[in-house]
Design goal:
- The protein is α+β, with helices and mostly antiparallel strands and 437 residues long.
- The chain is 36% helix and 25% strand.
Length: 437
């Protein structure tokens, strides 16, 4: 694993923004503190809308740097505003929440945190998606922007969002008056650490992340003794038929060039081997990239479930409950072009075009509420040597932990340096003295 004092990404020797160079020269003085913050956040993860400790860390760091800070937006959201003369308003967003996953990284700063869920059960908690990286990088960027106000003009807004994993945090902040409690930005920026080599940055115009819809479907049967199936309408068989038939939605109802994913992730039915239950509950997830495909797949799910229930003489209509819904993340062309050019100048060969991703986000709801454009990019977090070895063997999918895995833990460096640099370079593409016209 890469050492925490690895060499930071080296700016390209030519065409790099002079403003970015001067601001990011201050990274040396804040690096150690940011690494400590990252390890602390990783050790103490918090689930969505419970990020009280994390939010306080972010708010305290912003105040120390001279930001006007608003806390408790949408529950635990934080907004920091640094006005620095006339000019554009740039908002940078980081999500804060963790996941109910037991960490198995073996790191000395691994999480041992647990919480009690609504049913009184103890749940492990882990930063399995890298939101601790996002918080740390935005804190670092915010500090550098504050320490180098002579290099830029305008207003920088640092927004720390709760509960991205549940798709509830952006909406909660909006409903709690986000657009009245923050200056209206000209652009919104965000990034996510993904399983690419640390030091990598990747932009993509247009579709980047999929829409995601999670459903709970209940199918009804008629219970009976396990020895008398003829007296029953078996919901386990109905559920099994539904699962198999749903596999044909993507493979037989969509063109091969239309990306989509449909996954049944959970089935619950019955309480013992000799009892036919009276219901079965399925939970499933749909990923699509445009509204037409989204509607077509969701309609197909309902059609198939109803048809299987009717074919089995189910005594009640099936029930459909929407558990969560994420919009697609579709990057606006102009800000993505501007950021890609700035990244190319600063990161050189480490700047890439990232592939289409089937992950999902609620971040786009924030610029949507303001009616402004946005761009969202990827940074890598995997030890470059480990990734290169897996790529050489053709085993990246097997050997490189992905987000939400109990083994996912971005290397401290150069991940943090890259994330801080990316946010800063992107913000200065609008705010810097030598920004694009």
């Amino acid at each position: 694993m890469t050492s925490t004092n690895s060499t930071p990404p080296t700016p390209a020797a030519t065409s790099t923004s002079g403003t970015a160079r001067s601001v990011l020269a201050g990274l040396d003085s804040v690096r150690s503190g940011l690494e400590d913050l990252y390890r602390d956040l990783h050790r103490h993860p918090e689930l969505g809308l419970r990020e009280h400790r994390t939010a306080k860390k972010a708010a305290d760091a912003l105040r120390e740097s001279g930001y006007d800070v608003t806390e408790g937006v949408g529950g635990t959201g934080v907004i920091g505003v640094l006005a620095n003369g006339d000019g554009p308003v740039v908002m940078a967003r980081a999500d804060m929440d963790a996941l109910p996953v037991r960490e198995r990284t073996g790191l000395p700063y691994a999480s041992a945190e647990t919480v009690t869920d609504e049913d009184g059960r103890e749940q492990p908690v882990m930063h399995a998606c890298g939101h601790d990286v996002h918080v740390t990088c935005l804190v670092g960027c915010a500090r550098l922007m504050a320490e180098h106000r002579d290099a830029w003009r305008g207003t920088f807004v640092a927004l720390f969002q709760p509960s991205e994993e549940n798709g509830a945090g952006a909406d909660a902040m909006i409903k709690d008056g986000l657009t009245d409690r923050s200056p209206r930005p000209d652009v919104v920026l965000a990034q996510h650490v993904l399983p690419y080599p640390a030091g990598y940055v990747g932009t993509r115009a247009g579709s980047f992340l999929s829409a995601a819809d999670s459903l709970r479907v209940t199918v009804h049967g008629r219970g009976a003794h396990g020895s008398a199936p003829q007296a029953s309408v078996d919901p386990v068989v109905i559920a099994a038929s539904v699962v198999l038939r749903l596999q044909t939605v993507v493979s037989r109802e969509l063109a091969a060039t239309t990306p989509a994913v449909l996954t049944v992730g959970s089935i619950h039915a019955g309480s013992g081997p000799n009892v036919i239950p009276d219901r079965a509950v399925l939970e499933l997830n749909v990923r699509t990239y445009d509204d037409a495909t989204r509607t077509r797949v969701l309609d197909a799910v309902e059609r198939i479930v109803r048809a299987e229930c009717e074919a089995s003489r189910s005594p009640e209509e099936p029930e459909f409950e929407r558990l969560s819904s994420f919009p697609p993340t579709v990057n606006d062309e102009e800000p993505t072009r501007r950021v890609a050019e700035a990244f190319g100048a600063y990161f050189g060969d480490d700047a890439h075009t990232v592939e289409l991703q089937t992950a999902s986000e609620d971040m786009s709801e924030i610029p949507g509420a303001f009616g402004v454009p946005f761009t969202y990019w990827a940074i890598g977090g995997i030890d470059p040597e480990r990734y290169a070895e897996a790529a050489r063997k053709g085993t990246v999918a097997q050997d490189v932990p992905v987000n939400h895995s109990s083994s996912f833990a971005p290397v401290v460096q150069p991940t943090l340096d890259t994330g801080v640099s990316a946010l800063t370079v992107a913000a200065l593409a609008w705010l810097g003295d030598d920004r694009a016209a």
